[in-house]
Amino acid sequence: MTKEKKFIIGRVICNSQDKTISVLVERKVKHPMLGKFISKSKKYQVHNESGKFDVGDKVRIRECRPVSKKKSWVVVE
């Protein structure tokens, strides 16, 4: 019985580290009282073995086992 992996689409904001990129994921959420849509964002440290992604690229990331203290996501495409 394996748990299904989560997939998220985000934008690369930093690729200066070796085999690691920072990905910003933005989503729209409806405010419970005002009813307006507001932007929420979160940054993920993602394992990037190939090192072929540049700042501004859209990437799809997948949840995986922890690679390090902060990295538990890996780039799919």
Summary keywords:
OB fold (Dihydrolipoamide Acetyltransferase, E2P), 0% helix, 77 residues, five-stranded mixed barrel, globular
Task: Report on this structure.
The chain is an all-beta fold and 77 residues long. It has a single domain (7-75), classed as OB fold (Dihydrolipoamide Acetyltransferase, E2P) (Beta Barrel). Helix content is 0%, strand content 53%. The protein is built from no helices and five strands. It has strands at 7-14, 20-30, 37-47, 58-63, 71-75. It has a five-stranded mixed barrel with strand order 1-2-3-5-4. Strand 1 (7-14) and strand 2 (20-30) form a beta hairpin.
Task: Walk me through the topology.
Blueprint: E1 7-14, E2 20-30, E3 37-47, E4 58-63, E5 71-75
Please state the second-level CATH architecture: Beta Barrel
Radius of gyration: 14 Å
The biggest beta sheet, please?
Answer: 5 strands, mixed, barrel
Order of helices and strands: EEEEE
Output the strand order for the largest sheet.
1-2-3-5-4
Proportion of beta-strand residues? over 45%
CATH class: Mainly Beta
> How much helical structure, as a percent, in the residues?
under 10%
Question: Distance N terminus to C terminus?
Answer: 26 Å
Structural class: mainly beta
Low confidence ranges: none
Oligomer: single chain
Number of domains: 1
The count of DSSP E runs of length 2 or more, i.e. the number of strands, is 5
